[in-house]
Prior knowledge:
Blueprint: E1 2-11, H1 15-31, E2 36-41, H2 53-56, E3 63-72, H3 75-87, H4 89-94, E4 108-113
Antiparallel strand pairs: 1-3, 1-4, 2-3
Amino acid sequence: xxxxxxxxxxxxxxxxxxxxxxxxxxxxxxxxxxxxxxxxxxxxxxxxxxxxxxxxxxxxxxxxxxxxxxxxxxxxxxxxxxxxxxxxxxxxxxxxxxxxxxxxxxxxxxxxxxxxxx
Length: 118
């Protein structure tokens, strides 16, 4: 199994718009072969003195943090799915930076090989 994970700041006032966008994105990823697509909004995420989810994305008081992951059968499958999603016209329509309900410049992400699946 392979997982893409990401963390992004979202203005609290735009959380509903973010959820609508993420719901559409989830459908695309699943349609193209992702096993799961999860978007989780911060609930019990304290501001750490040195590191924390809010600090990692320089979240402001009017923002919350979204932690997300997408799982696939393998890295090769992930690469194929992501290529298909990015080529999909519906995804291109969602990627307008002037209309995005989050600050993608402060998002961080990466791909991970699963070593424990309990």
